[in-house]
Here is the input.
Amino acid sequence: MSARVPVGIVNAMTVDVEDYFQVSAFESHIDRGDWDKLPRRVEANIDRILALFDNHAVRATFFTLGWVAERHPEMVRRIVDAGHELGSHGYSHGRAHDQQPGEFQDDISRAKALLEDLSGCEVRGYRAPSFSVGPRNPWAFECIAKAGYRYTSSVYPIRHDHYGAPDSPRFSHEIRPGLMEVPVSTVRLMNTNLPAGGGGYFRLLPYAVSRWSVSRINRVDRRPAMFYFHPWEIDPAQPRVSGLSAKTRFRHYLNLDRTEARLTRLLRDFRWDRIDRVFLDGGRS
Ligand SMILES: [Zn+2]
Here is the structure.
C-alpha cells in the first residue's frame, strides 16, 4: 500500500470504551453482579489504541462507560491528555429501551458527572448502548437533552436483529433545539441502508468493502463518515465466554486477530478527527 497522505473530507473516528464482558449479547450469560470478579482488559487495549491513533496523528471520540471510568481513572486522564474527546456511554450499559425514563435519566446523568469530574472537561456527547435510542423511544432524547448533552451518536439506521432504525436519517441532524444526532455511517444501495460505520461488519467483510463505503460517503454523498469500534475487537487473547449460541460466538470472536491491521489501513487511507470537531465546531451538520 502507498504511504500517501489522505486528502478530502475529515471523518469522525469513535471508540466505545467497555470491556469484553459488558457487551449486550453476553447479558444473559454474565451477571452484572459478577463484573467485578472478571479480569479486566480494557485499559491495556485502550493503551494500544492510543498508541495506534498517535502513530497516525488521529484524534477520536471515546464514549466511555461510567463503570469502567470509575475503575480506570488514570486511563480516562490519558485519553484526554492525548487530545481526544471524552464522551459518555452511560454508567451501567443497560439498553435505553429496557429502562424506565427515570432510571435512564439517572444512568446518563451519573455517567456525565463522573466523567467530567475525572477529566476536568465538559462531556458533550452520549452514545446509547447497542444503539438503543431511536424512533421507538423518543423520550430518551428528552432525557439526553435534560442531562445536558449537546449531541448523541446513538442511531444505526440499518435493519438488524438487535438494533437499528432503518428509516432514521442517515446523516447528522438536529433532534430538537440544542441536541444533535450523529448516526453511524451507512451506504445507500438499491433503496437499502447498508452498514458502513463499523461493528461486526468491519470484521466480517473484507477491508476493501469498508474502504469503498467510506470513500463513497465522502465522494458521492459529500459527507463525513462516522466509524466506531470497541477495545475488545483488537484483543484476540480475551477470555472466552462459555455457553454462547453459535451466532453470538461467531459475531463476537470473528477475525479479532485481523482488526488492528484493518484499523491501521483505515486510519492511513482516510482523514479522521473527533466528533465535536467534525460535526459541532464549524463542521457541517
Ligand atoms: Zn457498548
